[in-house]
């Protein structure tokens, strides 16, 4: 993680930071636009992208007038281009995975908000890292898939990597700007977790959980996939993997504790046993604003924390019986490199099946564990993006096979 701005990058004539938002119609993307709208003299939007919500993307383009927009398929691009031309916009509409990599590395952009969900976010994140961008990482799957490859691209490209997940941003905010000082200060870190909507529910009843119940997070407003991951704690498992790479830690130096109020976003336990914590209201605009402005701070729009009105802050053990997905993080980290990509791929298949009514909620972790145990990761799979994506596809195929077996 480079603590200095990328050298030799030209300052835009406007003096504003030029921002590309990958996944602009999702919750992180819309929150990013909300923060940017508060600082029109400091930022400009160059690129917006979306996978399927074309109406929402069209509305964003009309409001922000980006230079480029990217969609998934050619027919979507034709439709969106016609709409924007009819409205008098000169926005260029591109489509496909290669276009995402192109805009992420575009020399006319200074900063990239990486908010594409899933494995699809890895190639554009790598492109932005290699191009030396200010890379605001909200797509944890990119680093979960290929931690060493991704961090190597950040280093070689001279990118400025800034974590956006609230937990990782909290850790980052507690550490000095000089990354070389981190190892001598950190004993371990503690990621906090709300426990999701089933923290107090009898685990024996979880077989009957519906998608709407799993998506009803008590503290955060998120998309359906990440909401399910939060309920199972697979999201926290992925965050454990992400933290290991972001902060160059051993797996045992990353720990998890339940904190239902979501006020303390994570903690650093120092070698002298001092504990540094970042607190705030549960609002993603805080880490987004910090990523946009680091090392400065700007107004985010989040509510100020009212200490006198706070309820007591409590902490609980993250019970593996209630959350069997969580221990899979350390299991994958201790296995051959690439195993974390297998875990992520299996989970994406499992969550999709659950949301589609084809898998019971309490079998999501079972499917993930089965795939992790059964797939033999090739020794060189994690050495290239092609190897990782091939491994991702192999894991998805095995996950679908396991799904059929569980359904039978």
TrEMBL record:
Mn(2+) binds at residues 165, 167, 239. Residues 161-247 form the 1-deoxy-D-xylulose 5-phosphate reductoisomerase C-terminal domain. Residues 19-147 form the 1-deoxy-D-xylulose 5-phosphate reductoisomerase N-terminal domain. Its EC number is 1.1.1.267. It catalyses: 2-C-methyl-D-erythritol 4-phosphate + NADP(+) = 1-deoxy-D-xylulose 5-phosphate + NADPH + H(+). GO terms for molecular function: 1-deoxy-D-xylulose-5-phosphate reductoisomerase activity. 1-deoxy-D-xylulose 5-phosphate binds at residues 140, 166-167, 194, 217, 230, 235-236, 239. InterPro entries: DXP_reductoisomerase, DXP_reductoisomerase_C, DXP_reductoisomerase_N, DXPR_C, DXPR_C_sf, NAD(P)-bd_dom_sf. Pathway: Isoprenoid biosynthesis; isopentenyl diphosphate biosynthesis via DXP pathway; isopentenyl diphosphate from 1-deoxy-D-xylulose 5-phosphate: step 1/6. Residues 279-397 form the DXP reductoisomerase C-terminal domain. Its cofactor is Mg(2+); Mn(2+). Pfam families: DXP_redisom_C, DXP_reductoisom, DXPR_C. NADPH binds at residues 25-28, 139, 141, 223. Catalyzes the NADPH-dependent rearrangement and reduction of 1-deoxy-D-xylulose-5-phosphate (DXP) to 2-C-methyl-D-erythritol 4-phosphate (MEP). Belongs to the DXR family. This is 1-deoxy-D-xylulose 5-phosphate reductoisomerase. It comes from Leptothrix discophora. The gene is dxr.
């Amino acid at each position: 993680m480079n603590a200095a701005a990328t050298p030799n990058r030209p300052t835009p004539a406007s003096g504003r930071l030029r921002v590309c938002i990958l996944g602009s119609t999702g919750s992180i993307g819309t929150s990013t636009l909300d923060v940017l709208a508060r600082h029109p003299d400091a930022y400009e939007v160059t690129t917006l992208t979306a996978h399927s919500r074309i109406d929402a993307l069209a509305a964003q383009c009309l409001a922000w007038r980006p230079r480029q927009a990217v969609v998934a398929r050619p027919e979507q691009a034709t439709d969106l281009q016609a709409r924007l031309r009819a409205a008098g916009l000169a926005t260029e509409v591109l489509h496909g995975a290669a276009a995402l990599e192109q805009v992420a590395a575009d020399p006319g952009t200074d900063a990239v908000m990486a908010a594409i969900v899933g494995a699809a976010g890895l190639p554009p994140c790598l492109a932005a890292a290699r191009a030396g961008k200010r890379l605001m990482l909200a797509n944890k799957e990119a680093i979960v898939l290929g931690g060493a490859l991704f961090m190597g691209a950040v280093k070689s490209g001279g990118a400025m990597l800034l974590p956006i997940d609230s937990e990782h941003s909290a850790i980052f905010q507690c550490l000095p700007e000089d990354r070389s000082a981190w190892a001598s200060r950190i004993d371990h870190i503690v990621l906090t977790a709300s426990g999701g909507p089933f923290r107090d529910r009898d685990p024996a009843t979880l077989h009957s959980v519906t998608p709407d119940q799993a998506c009803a997070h008590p503290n955060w407003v998120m998309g359906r996939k990440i909401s399910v991951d939060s309920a199972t704690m697979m999201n926290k498992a992925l965050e454990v993997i992400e933290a290991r790479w972001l902060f160059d830690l051993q797996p045992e130096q990353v720990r998890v504790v339940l904190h239902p109020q979501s006020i303390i976003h994570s903690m650093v336990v120092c070698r002298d046993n001092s504990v540094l914590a970042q607190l705030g209201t549960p609002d993603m605009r805080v880490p987004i604003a910090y990523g946009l402005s680091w090392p400065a701070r700007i107004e985010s729009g989040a509510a100020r924390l009212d200490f006198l009105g706070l309820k007591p802050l409590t902490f609980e053990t993250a019970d593996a019986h209630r959350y069997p997905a969580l221990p899979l993080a350390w299991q994958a980290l201790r296995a051959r490199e690439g195993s974390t990509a297998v875990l992520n791929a299996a989970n994406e298949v499992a969550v999709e099946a659950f949301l589609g009514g084809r898998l019971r909620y309490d079998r999501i972790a079972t499917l993930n564990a089965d795939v992790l145990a059964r797939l033999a990761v090739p020794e060189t799979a994690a050495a290239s993006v092609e190897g990782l994506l091939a491994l991702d596809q192999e894991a998805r195929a095995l996950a679908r096979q396991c799904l059929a077996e569980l359904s039978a």
